[in-house]
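Example record

The entry below shows one chain as it appears in the dataset: sequence first, then structure tokens.
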Amino acid sequence: MTRVVIAEDEPLLRNQLKDLIAATWPEAEVVHVAENGLQAIRALDEQAPEVMFLDIHMPEASGIEVAHHANGRCHVVFVTAYDQYAVAAFEEGAVDYVMKPLSLARIATAVKRVKDRLQSAPQNLSGLLTHLKEAPVRKGVYLRWIRASKGAEDVQLITSDEIKYFQSDTKYTRVVGTKREGFIRKSIKELIDQLDPSTFWQIHRSTIVNLNAIESVGRDMNGHVILRLKDRTETLQVSQPFAHLFRQM
């Protein structure tokens, strides 16, 4: 049995991660589930796991700090809602990771990669961890609702949870929800800096999607990545510069 430690501060995600690992990796034994970084460091010392699944953002000590302690001692899989910057860093460093929101397919891909690595010694993460520690992290209060125009005079408030995607043209940006939509005078560039990067991703120069609205990921006849949405009939095309974000889906 491969000994695994999970570190995630959100209770629902902890349970989900444990269940998904059990479903995709029956040979693994989750020997400890940590609620913060300090618990994870103690579990590393006490349980001597072969693999650790580490959330990046945790209280007491971050996943990056825990990974410093685990460096060279066990294999690390980062669990993250980071934006394109960190995903590119993971790819460049050939490090195992799984993106939120969690899914069976994403965990299965991460498990396959880390099982292949178990045949060799844990890699040295020093360079990557320094790179991640210096990565710019956007902080502040993110948009929770949008004032969108509908018609000449009507203005409606649409919460960020309702929004499926934003799509801009030359003059306006369309805000699309499950049953409601409207228009705003903010550009995609302005919006991406004001939205929570763990929930909203830019997938095209004119489009931002809510990750929780994605039903499935596929390809069209030309090989372009396309997203099918929950409760919507249209699909969204992912342009080439953003296609790497969906490799694990």
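Notes for this example: The CA atoms of residues 77 and 103 lie 15 Å apart. The chain has two domains: 2-133, 145-246.
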